[in-house]
Hints:
The protein has 177 residues and is α/β, with parallel strands linked by helices. It is built from six helices and eight strands. The chain has helices at 26-29, 43-53, 69-76, 90-96, 120-127, 140-149, and strands at 17-25, 40-41, 62-66, 84-85, 100-103, 132-134, 153-158, 174-176. Helix 5 links the parallel strand 5 (100-103) and strand 6 (132-134).
Amino acid sequence: xxxxxxxxxxxxxxxxxxxxxxxxxxxxxxxxxxxxxxxxxxxxxxxxxxxxxxxxxxxxxxxxxxxxxxxxxxxxxxxxxxxxxxxxxxxxxxxxxxxxxxxxxxxxxxxxxxxxxxxxxxxxxxxxxxxxxxxxxxxxxxxxxxxxxxxxxxxxxxxxxxxxxxxxxxxxxxxxx
Length: 177
């Protein structure tokens, strides 16, 4: 009998991921250091960021989503809940055809409207859209680096461990400008 994941393992990425990363700094868009847990990010927010920054994510890219979790945590301490995508983002993500989403949320974005369970967006992104997810990314230094350059695009390198039958791995993502 096999132990662990029979599907969606990290093994297809065992040789690493190198792609274009695009930071969507939604806290910066809204002029705040961080959003509040429970705040929802909608397609209109993403498109407003594109107009402001001039950067747009496309097929094969890594969408890097910052709402300011770790800046908030440094100032106020650990939080209950998280900000994150509203479930209305799913068609937008499908249209953009991104390969990877890097976000600060631990997979449990705000409770979707209706009878959906808490991490429905996270699970739909992975299982239905086939987008790889990197949870709990601390994006504070990246936010400062991109803002200081006024450049929201970079080369992103991620090297997961080769763990057969595992659906996740610790990683240290590297942004190169």
